[in-house]
Specification:
Layout (H helix, E strand, L loop, with lengths): L2 E3 L8 H10 L6 H12 L6 H9 L6 H13 L3 E5 L5 E5 L7 E5 L5 E4 L5 H12 L10 E4 L2 H11 L13
């Protein structure tokens, strides 16, 4: 199973998203452009707080603007909303041609992409669901673990510490 750190590798052009927004009756604003660029350049799916923080670095942006933009983008299949078991929600640009799942570090929140999806059995299940008349079917599978960086920190903490030499002992 191949994995990589998230990075929107698909040829997501700002101009293509701008046209999709306009085609669906939305306005293309500087805020929407900044949010789109942030999601395009992200190494992993982002929370609203992360998007607000990154967008604020290049000018003022209101949290409500971020929420409304993400809602419009989600409703129009521009972003994918991924709810996680810990209650957080992350967003990334939609890439219909590169379906994937995520692996989330329980310690630091780092997210990696698993470029695989359950194999033939899952695909048969999805096909069955579509045959039942459902459209725009999506599924979310969450894998969690401890990333290599956090694992190294944990291993270093659990190593027995050497006792300091006593001040009064002679060698």
């Amino acid at each position: 199973m191949k994995s990589r750190m998230c990075k929107s590798e698909e040829p997501t052009k700002i101009s293509a998203i701008r046209e999709a927004v306009k085609k669906r009756g939305g306005k293309w604003t500087p805020g929407r452009e900044r949010i789109t660029k942030i999601l395009r350049d992200a190494d992993s799916p982002l929370t609203v707080d992360q998007i607000v923080e990154l967008a604020s670095k290049t000018g003022r942006i209101d949290r409500v603007t971020v929420y409304r933009t993400l809602l419009f983008f989600e409703e129009n299949q521009i972003v994918v909303r991924t709810p996680l078991a810990d209650g957080t929600v992350r967003f990334e640009l939609d890439s219909a041609e590169t379906h994937h799942h995520h692996l989330l570090c329980r310690k630091c929140g780092k997210m990696a992409v698993l470029e695989a999806c359950g194999g033939k059995d899952w695909m048969k299940l999805l096909e069955t669901v579509k045959n039942m008349g459902f459209r725009e079917v999506r599924h979310f599978v969450e894998f969690t673990g401890i990333c290599a960086d956090c694992g190294d920190v944990l291993r270093n903490r659990t190593k027995p510490r050497k006792k300091p030499a006593s001040a009064g002992s002679s060698s």
